[in-house]
From TrEMBL:
Pathway: Amino-acid biosynthesis; L-methionine biosynthesis via salvage pathway; L-methionine from S-methyl-5-thio-alpha-D-ribose 1-phosphate: step 3/6; Amino-acid biosynthesis; L-methionine biosynthesis via salvage pathway; L-methionine from S-methyl-5-thio-alpha-D-ribose 1-phosphate: step 4/6. Its cofactor is Mg(2+). Binds 1 Mg(2+) ion per subunit. One of its GO terms (molecular function) is acireductone synthase activity. It catalyses: 5-methylsulfanyl-2,3-dioxopentyl phosphate + H2O = 1,2-dihydroxy-5-(methylsulfanyl)pent-1-en-3-one + phosphate. Monomer. This is Enolase-phosphatase E1. One of its GO terms (biological process) is L-methionine salvage from methylthioadenosine. It holds the Pfam family Hydrolase.
Length: 226
């Protein structure tokens, strides 16, 4: 019996274009100013050290900015980039510059599942801070109360089985009691390997059904049967 639903963000509850065409440019344009203004903040210093470690060399502030910009262009899903983006998006969400467009079907089903007593969790490459901002500033208002917890790549890569094993442990349920929803076929395979029930969400504007894909595929949340 399904007791909890674990949900991806980009391509699943919101269009990929929102992340690529709104969120990413917003962070890219403000990176340099943000790092310059916050270079003495211990939290930001730690993140910059992580960037240097990944690159395997010392970096000037300008070089760190260029590295982050390159990672945004390459859509790298790595924690130090996602942490910095979360800090930059904070201002955009709080000033009202950015509002998250949640698909209507996702919004309605999330509310329905919550009312039925299911636990709802998010697992996204966006930092936990960014996820909370994303759901507290949506076109449907503040949806933060719908969720029982948030996971990002600090728990592990979304394409690896172990990340889902760890999430099930944190939630305190058996993997088979958790349903995972994502647009990404590799994430679906990894969650299924961990023993979770899965559905791939295939938004027509973002993706296509894969022939002979060994797991269930539906075009939106209305197709998900518990
Ligand atoms: C506010 S969440 C930001 C989303 C993001 O940065 C991202 O890379 C989305 O990846 P996902 O794992 O949700 O597909
Ligand atoms: Mg996704």
């Amino acid at each position: 019996m399904i007791k909890a639903i674990l949900i991806d963000i980009e391509g699943t509850v919101a269009p990929i274009s929102f992340v690529k065409d709104v969120l990413f440019p917003y962070s890219k344009e403000r990176l340099e100013k943000f790092l310059e203004e916050n270079k003495e903040n211990p939290h930001i210093k730690r993140i910059v050290e992580e960037i240097k470690k990944i690159e395997g060399k010392d970096l000037s502030l300008k070089e760190a900015v260029n590295t982050l910009k390159k990672w945004i262009d390459e859509d790298r899903k790595i924690a130090p980039l996602k942490d910095i983006q979360g800090f930059i998006w904070k201002e955009g969400f709080e000033k009202g510059d950015i509002k998250s467009p949640i698909y209507e079907d996702a919004y309605k089903k999330l509310k329905e599942w919550k009312e039925k007593g299911l636990k709802l969790y998010i697992y996204s490459s966006g930092s936990v801070q960014a996820q909370k901002l994303f759901f507290s500033h949506t076109e449907h208002g503040n949806l933060l109360d719908l969720f029982d917890g948030f996971f990002d790549t600090r728990i592990g890569n979304k394409k690896e089985k172990d990340s889902y094993v760890k999430i099930a442990q944190k939630i305190g349920l058996k993997p088979e009691e958790i349903l995972f929803l994502s647009d990404n076929p590799d994430e679906i395979k990894a969650a299924a390997q961990a023993g979770m029930k899965v559905y791939r969400i295939v938004r027509p504007e973002d993706a296509e059904f894969i022939d002979n894909f060994p797991f269930r595929q539906v075009k939106d949340f209305n197709g998900v049967k518990l």
